[in-house]
Amino acid sequence: MPRLNGTIEGGAQAFVQLRDEGGDFVGEVRADDAGHFVFYAIPGHWRVICLAPGGRRVEHEVDMGSSDVDVDLDLTIAV
Amino acid sequence: MTDYANPDVLVDTEWLAQHVNDPAVRIIEVDEDDTAYEKGHIRNAVGWRWFEDLHAKPRRDYINQAGLNRLLRQAGVADDTTIVLYGGNNNWFASYAFWLLRYLGVDNVKLLNGGRKRWELESRELVTEVPQFKATKFKAPNKVRKELRALRNEVLRKAGKVDFIDVRSPEEFRGEMLAPAHLPQESAMVAGHIPGAKNVPWSRAANEDGTFKSADQLRELYGGVGVSGEGQVIAYCRIGERSAHTWFVLHELLGYDDVENYDGSWTEYGSLVGVPVEW
After folding, report:
1. What is the pTM of this model?
2. What ipTM, to 2 d.p.?
3. Where are chain B's structural domains?
4. What pLDDT does A68 receive?
């Protein structure tokens, strides 16, 4: 199963949600102190939503292909 | 929160902020991530590890009433203490602890609406000091409520005859994944769902900040699959924690009487030999 490796600049300890194409929440993790997070997701179209204190929020869509092993995603959340 | 059938089972973050030093309130964090409490928690909160503290090792089962009494005594809970549970991931494991306390006969329990996420998104205080409370002689005031829990034989007897709600993600329901996307995919022997189960992912009951949707929204959500408080409902997921969140919504917030949590869930059902499975 492909792995989605994300990094959020300014997103230490952010709440990161993975939602499927229909908008359903599939999982939520905390980014680490460097803003890194990991999800395991089947091939498809996914939406990543990052939430942080102060009403900060960033959202990004990502495609995971059937031949992908690791997909890297770099995001920035306003500080 | 007044539209809910039992609004008293929830407290909001502002209420809790006003009661962190209230000796009549005992705050308990139960998290999926056992390290979250150590990194910081709500002032005067006790930390419970969902597996280490709440399970009767080495069996797969919960602690019994005596075990729960011991935990609550150590936490300084007395007969008149109000217990407020909270945790991460939209209160996944706090809901699980809420259901377990009710199952084991404890009544005076509430859930922090939005849990740890809402608290942190509001930039409220977290501390690392671990509180110490004088042990009590607490004893659960009621018998075990077996009517809140479905076990394997009941599930096999009732599959297709009562409403089953599979609260996992659509991908798990369809058999494409075996666990949530942030966990390694190791779980049951086969993928799929209990025949006839309806898929209402648990998270549809929560807003983005982890708080519960309104009573009208929740009635519409479950009414859409024919669940409106008539007849029995059995909720399940992978290990019974997300389905405890749905149990909380149906039984506590909407006041539906006959709702059970099948905590064996897919890790048990999906490993049984010879039982019917749908994709």
Report:
1. 0.94
2. 0.88
3. 7-144, 147-269
4. 87
At the topology level, CATH places domain A3-76 in Immunoglobulin-like (2.60.40)
Contact B169 A15 (CB under 8 A): no
Distance CA B37, CA B127 (A): 9
B160-184 residue pLDDT tens = 999 999 999 998 999 988 888 777 6
For residue B169, the chain A residues in CB contact (below 8 A) are 20, 24-27
Torsion of CA B113, B115, B119, B122, to 10 degrees: -60
Instruction: Identify all chain B residues contacting A29, using CB atoms and an 8 Å cutoff.
Output: 182
Q: What is the pLDDT of residue B89?
A: 87
CATH class of the B7-144 domain in this structure: alpha beta
Q: Where is B83: in which H helix or E strand? A: strand B82-86
Contacts of B33 in chain A (CB under 8 A): 30
How do the domains of chain A map onto residue ranges?
Answer: 3-76
Residue of A nearest to B123 (CA): A53
* Mutation site for A-interface testing, chosen from B121, B186, B204 by largest number of A Cβ within 10 Å: B121
Strands of B109-112's sheet, edge to edge? B10-11, B109-112, B82-86, B25-31, B45-49
Catalytic hit among B237, B239, B244, B250:
B237
In whole angstroms, what is the distance from residue B268 CA to residue B271 CA? 5
Could you please state the CATH topology (level 3) that the domain comprising B147-269 is classified under.
Oxidized Rhodanese; domain 1 (3.40.250)
